[in-house]
UniProtKB/TrEMBL annotation:
The keyword Flavoprotein applies. This is Flavodoxin/nitric oxide synthase. It comes from the Bacteria. Keywords: Flavoprotein, FMN, Oxidoreductase. GO terms for molecular function: FMN binding; nitric-oxide synthase activity; oxidoreductase activity, acting on NAD(P)H, quinone or similar compound as acceptor. Pfam families: Flavodoxin_1 (PF00258). Its EC number is 1.14.13.39. The keyword Flavoprotein applies. Residues 4-145 form the Flavodoxin-like domain. InterPro entries: Flavodoxin/NO_synth (IPR008254), Flavoprotein-like_sf (IPR029039).
Length: 148
């Protein structure tokens, strides 16, 4: 059994639906999952749960407004999380070119600066290729959990 905190960034609800689907499925398999729609730093510093970012990309490779305050506080305060496992699921659209899935890179950089430990490769979900991000996220997260 693993305790997981999902940090959600979403504009139109795709990433949020993905996070909620993961919670439902993983809790059915005995894990404990907290979905954070408006995360604050205390949501991660008050526990040692594995961290899973599930965010879309907006603007020009930017973070959605609901995740941005968390990101800025994380960058400002850099609460050290040595060895803490994290994973990244990022939604984007490859037609945006260079900024494809940029939000995931921003979160990865910030978490690395806290000395957290990345587990698995980033899952990049391309809106051009799928209308069901949760269908890609579910098998990925099962593999991720085996490495956490
Ligand atoms: C205004 C706007 C800007 C976007 N900018 C980017 C971008 O820079 N890079 C990218 O990969 N996707 C970009 N996207 C695509 C979204 O990330 C993608 O559609 C995603 O599935 C939306 O997820 P959500 O429903 O959780 O917000 C943008 C979409 C919109 C509407």
């Amino acid at each position: 059994m693993t305790s997981i905190r999902i940090l959600v960034g979403s504009v139109y609800g795709g990433a949020l639906l993905t996070a909620r689907t993961l919670k439902k499925e993983l809790e059915g398999e005995g894990h404990h999952v907290t979905v954070l729609e408006n995360p604050v730093l205390d949501d991660i510093t008050s526990n040692n749960d594995a961290l899973l970012v599930c965010t879309s990309t907006t603007g020009q490779g930017e973070l959605p407004a609901n995740l941005l305050p968390f990101y800025l506080d994380l960058r400002d305060q850099l609460p050290q999380q040595p060895g803490r496992p994290f994973g990244i699921i990022v939604l984007g659209d490859s037609s945006y070119g260079d900024t494809f899935c940029g939000a995931g890179d921003l979160m990865e950089e910030a978490l690395y600066e806290t000395a957290a430990r990345k587990v698995g490769d980033t899952l990049r979900i391309d809106a051009l290729e799928t209308m069901e991000p949760e269908a890609e996220a579910l098998p990925w997260v099962r593999g991720w959990l085996e490495q956490v």
